[in-house]
From TrEMBL:
Stretches assigned to the TonB-dependent receptor-like beta-barrel domain: 250-676
Family that this chain belongs to: Belongs to the TonB-dependent receptor family.
Membrane-topology descriptor: Multi-pass membrane protein
Domain TonB-dependent receptor plug: 58-167
Keywords: Cell outer membrane, Ion transport, Iron, Iron transport, Membrane, Receptor, Signal, TonB box, Transmembrane, Transmembrane beta strand, Transport
Any Pfam family matching the protein: TonB_dep_Rec_b-barrel
InterPro entries: Beta-barrel_TonB, Beta-barrel_TonB_sf, Plug_dom, Plug_dom_sf, TonB-dep_rcpt-like
PROSITE patterns: TONB_DEPENDENT_REC_3
Name listed for the protein in its UniProt record: TonB-dependent receptor
Signal sequence annotation: 1-25
Subcellular location: Cell outer membrane
GO annotation terms (biological process): iron ion transport
This protein's GO CC annotations: cell outer membrane
Naturally occurring in which organism (per UniProt): Sideroxydans lithotrophicus (strain ES-1)
């Protein structure tokens, strides 16, 4: 048994020994719901815990941050994270099937992801959802059990390990919160169905219990192979201990089945624009999907001792999946196991007459699998010896076997000081070391040049270790009672994902340095945010697609400049109007892209898939009688579809989401719509270096009616 395997095997013992240790209580933070006070309808500031690891209003955070509150979430279908993130400048999110396959960018980070979310740290109640290699899967998160969502943009976040895009914190309903007890049923277009039950209560003076169960399905008959369904069950336990300490634990299970439809060529996309139906798929791999089962556990404790608050937590998850992709079928025969701990302390103090707060802690996390396999596709169509299409997702001959471990060890700390009542200074850092070890027996592989399976490389070992320093310095100044201004410098490294290392073992970490200034205004009747940033990247990891096979290389230098605006105004007592806008000028300063046997210079070219301008407007109505409504219209400019900047796609105009709700007593009736005007457009268009263009369709209209009974 090697050293890394023994560490993984010993972690369950660490887990069992630390179950009695305390964890975070941030889940129970009171927030302002949608940002409005129900009694006087004033616009209020939200509370964030993601940017600084301590509760703070968003206006006091020296960086761009957005908080999506309870009221907005309750009026959404919440089939996936995309619906919560709508209308946040600098954030692009979309889904192929309304399931958990969200394609997510924050200021361009994550653009190279083929599946899942890359370069962005995602957490749930402070527990990392993102793997140590920066890949995030959302299939085990119950989107119906969400109190709020926080988005912190840019590098240097104290939560983020090896991810420079920022952090997203999904905060679930606390076990001690009985106001979230609900039974919900919903049905809608495209075969959409939703069932959800959540009930929490105190078993006695010290023990709280909660159970949640959810079922979501969307048939998506407008496109071939596009069904998504998810079944989830969760149990929470809360314990009130002597001295004001709390211990919260949670166990969840998820069973997710999700077909991943392929794109279209120009003829197929033209047909889709005319009919709203996709009947064909371009390319060979027509049977992609991801079926997964996930068990997840976490326990967290919190206790105040003098000026210190201690917040250790432990967590673990085990998952299996069946995942046909390009060329091969992934099948985790054994459970992939992730176990970790995050031991944190906070200290309130004074320094040279200034009030201060210190947050510090350590992180240890490891993921591993002793038998992860890849298979050939069994059922294929051929032209001669060339494979031209898959006919099913059934496994054929064994192609490879892998065992691997991926370990992260880190420390973090942040000091916050108030020199005066108007000034607030944050200085934070974290230092992580990521070690990756994989043994592969490659029996066969798919040869893209001949479109056949060929002999593999046999047994080989991959070992990589990366040091990942991250830091941030931010200053907030209270200019007036309503307006804060800030400036921040953040720097962090981006870790290559395991699959990227396998494709290109010579990859190095990318470095992002971000300079940002901004303003945040809050009054009773209006709010506004402005952020201007200049982000310099060295060795950014970009994807290269040479006619069907995707690889990854380090670009030399990339420059990202942007402007983000959002705001809202209460025009009359019950009506708020607002919108958001972001301008993005992202280009390669120096980058040579492999094209066949040569390198093509891309210096000065714009990054693909990122439009220079995106904007939206909304109207929000809320009446004391219980009637509320919201309409949001989104616009996206054109963007280049490849690194060569050889072709552009025109984006979309006026894609509308809307909700209409009536709440009376414990009853909530809600009608929600995504793409209300039923526009047909592409959520993404891409082009390979050999000239093949692929269109991925966005979903047509989905209107859903739901009824919720508060228990």
């Amino acid at each position: 048994m090697n050293k890394k395997t023994s560490v993984l095997s010993a972690m369950p013992l660490v887990l069992s020994m630390t179950l009695a240790l305390p964890g975070h209580a941030e889940d129970a933070l009171p927030v302002a719901g949608s940002g409005k006070d129900a009694g006087n309808n004033k616009i209020l500031d939200e509370v964030s815990v993601t940017a600084t690891r301590e509760a703070r209003t968003t206006r006091e955070v020296p960086q761009a941050i957005a908080v999506v509150g309870k009221d907005k979430i309750e009026k959404k279908r919440m089939f996936n994270l995309k619906e919560a993130l709508e209308g946040i400048p600098g954030v692009q999110a979309d889904s192929k099937n309304g399931g958990s396959d969200v394609r997510l960018f924050i200021r361009g980070a994550g653009v190279k992801a083929v599946y899942g979310i890359r370069e962005i740290m995602v957490l749930r109640d402070g527990v990392p959802v993102t793997d140590p290699d920066s890949l995030t899967r959302l299939d085990f998160i119950d989107m119906q059990d969400i109190e709020r969502v926080e988005v912190s943009k840019g590098p240097g976040n104290i939560y983020s390990t090896g991810s420079f895009g920022g952090a997203i914190q999904i905060i679930s309903k606390s076990v001690f919160d009985t106001s979230g007890n609900v039974a919900r049923i919903g049905v809608g277009e495209q075969g959409a169905k939703n069932l959800h039950l959540r009930y929490a209560g105190m078993a006695n003076e010290s023990n709280a219990l909660a159970i949640t169960t959810s079922f979501r399905k969307q048939d998506n008959p407008w496109r071939v192979r596009n069904v998504s369904d998810s079944k989830q069950l969760g149990f929470k336990h809360g314990l009130l201990l002597d001295g004001g300490a709390t211990l919260e634990s949670e166990l969840t299970y998820a069973n997710s089945k999700m077909q991943l439809p392929g794109g279209m060529d120009l003829a197929g996309f033209t047909s889709f624009l005319a009919t709203g139906t996709q009947t064909t798929q371009a390319g060979i791999w027509k049977n992609s999907k991801r079926d997964s089962r996930v068990w997840s556990f976490n326990s967290k404790y919190e206790k105040e001792i003098g000026d210190w608050t201690f917040k250790p937590r432990v967590y673990a998850n085990w998952w299996k999946h069946y995942h046909p992709v390009t060329g091969l079928i992934n099948d985790t025969v054994n459970w992939t196991q992730t176990i970790g701990t995050d031991i944190e302390g906070q200290n309130k103090h004074s320094l040279a007459g200034m009030s201060g707060s210190l947050v510090a802690g350590v992180t240890l996390r490891q993921v591993g699998n002793s038998d992860s396999r890849q298979y050939q596709y069994r059922d294929v169509a051929k032209a001669g010896t060339r494979i031209i299409a898959t006919l099913s997702d059934v496994e054929g001959a064994l192609a490879s076997q892998q065992s691997y471990t991926d370990t992260v060890k880190g420390i973090f700390m942040q000091e916050s000081l108030r020199p005066t009542e108007r000034w607030l200074v944050d200085a934070g850092m974290r230092y992580d070391q990521s070690s990756f070890s994989m043994t592969t027996n490659e029996i066969s592989k798919f040869n893209y040049a001949t479109a056949t399976y060929a002999a593999g490389a046999g047994v080989f070992q991959t070992n990589k270790s990366y040091n990942l320093p991250s830091s941030k310095l931010g200053v907030t100044y209270k200019a007036t009672e309503s307006v804060n201004v800030y400036a921040t410098i953040g720097r962090s490294n981006q870790l290559p994902a395991n699959a990227e290392i396998t494709a290109n073992p010579n990859l190095t970490v990318a470095t992002s340095t971000n300079y940002e200034i901004g303003m945040k205004a809050r009054t009773d009747d209006w709010f506004g945010n402005i952020a201007v940033y200049n982000n310099k990247l060295n060795n950014e990891i970009v994807s290269v697609n040479t006619g069907g096979t995707q690889s990854f290389v380090n670009a030399g230098k990339t420059s990202k400049q942007g402007l983000e605006l959002d705001g809202g105004y209460r025009v009359v007592k019950n009506v708020e109007v607002g919108g958001q806008f972001n301008y993005s000028n992202y280009h390669y300063t120096s980058f040579s892209e492999p094209v066949g046997a040569t390198n093509a210079v891309r210096d000065g070219n714009q990054l693909p898939f990122i439009p220079k301008d995106r904007y939206g407007v909304y109207v929000d109505y809320k009446h004391p009688s219980g009637i509320s409504a919201r309409v949001q219209s989104n616009f996206s400019g054109e963007y280049y579809v490849d690194n060569a900047n050889s072709q552009m796609y025109g984006g979309y105009r006026g894609v509308v989401s809307a909700s209409l709700a009536y709440e009376t007593g414990p009853h909530l009736f809600n009608l929600s719509a995504e793409n209300l005007t039923n526009k047909y457009y592409a959520m993404e268009v891409s082009k390979t270096t050999t000239g093949t263009v692929t269109y991925s369709a966005a979903s047509p209209r989905v209107i859903m009616a739901s009824y919720s009974l508060k228990l």
